[in-house]
Every structure is written in C-alpha cells, then in structure tokens.
Design goal:
This protein has 283 residues and is an alpha/beta fold. The chain has helices spanning 17-28, 40-46, 65-79, 102-129, 151-171, 207-218, 227-240, 251-270, 272-275; strands spanning 8-11, 32-37, 55-59, 84-87, 92-93, 134-138, 177-183, 196-197, 246-249. The strands form two sheets. The chain has a seven-stranded parallel beta sheet, with helices on both faces. It is globular and about 60 Å long.
Length: 283
C-alpha cells in the first residue's frame, strides 16, 4: 500500500455504524471503495460532503450468490484490482433460545455465514491468482463468549470464527491473510431497533432477558467504543499486513475475552482426569 497506488477495498454493510465510518475514512485517505449495502440511497446521504469519486456504491443482497459475483466483477472492472475485503454486514438479535423461530435463525445465518461465504467464493480465486489479498471478517467479542439472550447472534459469530480460522490457514499457502476483528460495544446504532431484532412473541419465564433487553436499549449513546477509532484500527491492520489472527477492539472486549480464556482453562483442568480415561490402553 503506497500513497501513489490506492488500495482497493470491498466492504459489506456500509450504510451505518462501523461500516459507514470505515468507508468515510477510506475515501478521505484516497482509497478505492466498493461499498455494498441494501440501500445505496441511505449510504450516499450519509456520505454527504465526502468526496465519492473513488466510491462504487452497490445495492446488494449478500444471500444471492450471483449478485455477489456481479458486484465483485464490477469492482474489478472499475478499479482494476482488489486488495482488501471487509465482511462487516450483520445485525443483532436478542431473545431466548426457546423464543427464536426457525425463520429468524435461518435469516441470521443467511447474512452472517452464507453471505460471507458467497463473498469468499467470489474473491478467493482473485486473491489466489494474485498471490495475496487480505480478508477482514468483523465478528464480535460474542464470537468468543456468550451471554443469555444472545444465543442466535453468538451462534452466527462463533460459526464465523471457525470459518475464519480455517480460512486463514488455507490462504496462507498462497500469501493471503485473514484477520478476525472482535469489537465490544461501540457507540453506533447497533443497540437500537434499526440494527437489533427482537422476537415477535416472548415467553414467560425469561424475565431476566426482558430486563437485559431493556437495559441494552438504554445503553445507546454510552457505549465505550468509538467507531472513528475502530475504523482507523481496521485500516491500520490492513496497512500493516501484520498482526494477530484475532484482534479485539475495545477495553470491554478485552475484559470479556480474557475472562472467557480463564473460564475455559478452569473447565479443562476440572475435567482433565475424566478426559484422560477415554483413550485406548497404551500397548
């Protein structure tokens, strides 16, 4: 990445939140950006005052593989290359596991997993042929740990973590790189009903989840994470071409993640004696 050769980015989920801030900063630094969203009108309104000469705004349903392929081809045709892909599209869902309908579960995985897979199948042949490329998958600290009421969202992010870890080992053979970004609570509209889905009906017995839902909606505007700094961190990760496979973003993310590591270690050690009894006898 040099000042004379703009980096070309393909970013999903760009009309609000961290994705929108990322697009703004990329355009301001003179990079090429293919920004996908369900509403290009909303994206362009949000970019009012920003120089969009290097922007390709694409209305895209990530669950449609053919449409994803076409969007990637448009990116290559417009910018004659592709360097970094950021899979950022997603939304929250807050409900008990029992309250989560089949339709809600399938919709979540369509976006968070199958949509990502569609993008990967489109861009990986390009990266492989050019012996490079950087994929940044935006997960969450809830891809590492889980809380009551977040079962569906965590299931999607846990799946994304596993997919990304396998992918990282695969693309390393041809010089590609994968980074999993795991934000905590950022001061975006993620904790509003614009980005947080709720169940159509609730079930008696989960009063603590109703209280947590109310408390989360009240958090809006007080989250610790700064999306300006978060987007800058993602750009720095791509620019350095270095860094760990997993990158936490936010002090709250670090606290949650390290607590999970400690809990896992305690569980493993507590079950160690029984675990070692299940091998075949050594001969």
């Amino acid at each position: 990445m040099t000042a004379t050769t703009p980096t070309t980015w393909f970013v999903t989920g760009t009309s609000r939140g961290l994705g929108l801030e990322l697009v703004k900063q990329l355009l301001e630094r003179g990079d090429n950006v293919a920004a996908t969203t369900r509403s290009t009108d909303r994206l362009l309104r949000a970019l009012d005052g920003v120089n969009t000469d290097r922007l390709l705004a694409v209305a895209l349903d990530l669950t449609a593989a053919d449409a994803v392929d076409a969007a990637v081809r448009r990116t290559i045709d417009r910018f004659d290359g592709l360097d970094v892909v950021v899979n950022n599209a997603g939304y929250g869902y807050l409900a008990a596991v029992e309250e989560t309908t089949d339709q809600a579960a399938r919709q979540m995985f369509d976006v968070q997993i199958f949509g990502v897979w569609n993008v990967l199948r489109s861009v990986l042949p390009i990266f492989r042929s050019r012996h490079g490329g950087h994929i940044i998958n935006v997960s969450s600290v809830l891809g590492l740990t889980a809380m009551p009421g977040w079962g569906l969202y965590c299931a999607g992010k846990f799946a994304l973590e596993g997919l990304s870890e396998s992918l990282a080992a695969e693309v390393s053979e041809f010089g590609g790189k994968v980074t999993i970004v795991e934000p905590g609570y950022f001061r975006t509209d993620f904790l509003t009903t614009d980005s947080l889905a709720l169940p159509d009906t609730t079930t008696q017995g989960y009063e603590s989840i109703r209280e947590m839902t109310h408390n989360h909606l009240e958090l809006q505007g007080s989250q610790l994470g700064d999306p300006v700094k978060g987007a800058a961190a993602i750009i720095a990760i791509a620019a350095s071409k270095e860094g760990p496979l997993r990158q936490l973003l936010g002090s709250d993310s670090y606290v949650y993640a390290t607590a999970k590591v400690s809990a896992l270690t305690a569980d493993f050690e507590a079950g160690r004696e029984l675990a070692l009894t299940t091998d075949h006898p050594q001969t």
